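hiii, so i know i said id send this last week but things got crazy w the move. better late than never?? heres the sequnce for the chain we talked about at the cafe, plus the structure i predicted for it. fair warning i was half asleep when i ran it
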Amino acid sequence: MPAPERVPAGGLTGDAGPSGAAGDTTGPPAGPGAAGDAMELLTRGELTVRGRLRDASNAVLYCEVALDGRTAECVYKPVAGERPLWDFPDGTLAEREVAAYLVSEATGWGLVPPTVLRDGPYGEGMCQLWIDEADEKPGQEPELLALVEEDEPGEGWKAVVRAEVGGGRTALLVHADDPRLRRIALLDAVINNADRKGGHLLSAPDGRLYGIDHGIAFHAEDKLRTLLWGWADEPLPEDAVEVLRHLTSALEGELGGRLAELLTEAEVAAVGTRVADLLRTGRYPRPSGQWPAIPWPPV
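okay and structure toks below
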C-alpha cells in the first residue's frame, strides 16, 4: 500500500524535479554523521518549492533544499496550510511532527526521517527529508499490509480485524509479523499516534522502514488509532523494554525539555505516563474501546 502523499508521479502539481540516486548529492545522506548532516541541510538550506502533493489533506510541498553545494529533496508543510481539527489545537501539527522525530531518535531506532521546524517560502512549517521508496515489481505480494479472504492470517502475518469490503463481502486485514513494524507499533503507542495508516509507512531501498505523517499525535487523551494491532496484549520484547527504560530517563532530561518547546505541559506529561504504563504492563497496548481504534480507509 503506497503512500499517496509521498509519491510525486501522477500526484504532483508543478515541476517534481529529479529523485535522489546513489552516488550523487541528492537523496538521504548515508554514512557516519549522516543524520546530523541532513539536519543541518534541512535547517539552514535554501528551500525551493518544486510542486505540491495534491492528495494530502493539508498543504504538502515537495521541495529541494540546498546548502554549500549539497542538495536533497524534502517535504515542507507550512503551518499556514494546516486545516483545523476539532480535537487538536490549531497550528500545532508541524510541531507534533518534529516531536515525533525527537522521540524516534531517542529510541535509537531511527524510525522517522530527519525533521525540523523552520521558516520557509510560506512561513514556519515542518521540513522533512524525502525518502525514496523501494520499487515494487508488478504483481508482487504486499510486504506489510494485506486483505485476505481466509479466516486466519497465515504464517508470517498478524490479524488486525475483519472488515466489510463491499458487495456483502468481508476480508481479514493483516499486517506482516515484521520486527520493523513492531518498533513502529511501539513508537505509535508512546506518541499516541491517531493516524497510522498503510500510506504512512515507507520502505526504503536499503531495507529500512520509516513512519511519516505524525501531525495528529501526542494528544493527552488516549487516541491511538493504527493498523498495527497484531501484537495487542502480547509481551514486549527485551529490546523494547530497554528502549522504554531509556525514554524514561530521557524524558527527565534533554528530551523532555525539547518536547516542552513543542507540546503542552499536559501532553509531555502524558508521554511519560504512557511509557510508564507500557513498562508496568510489559505488553503492547490493546484498543481502549473509547476511541475508533482503526483508521479507515487503511491507506
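btw Residues 1-32 have pLDDT under 50 and may be disordered. thought thatd interest u
miss u guys!!
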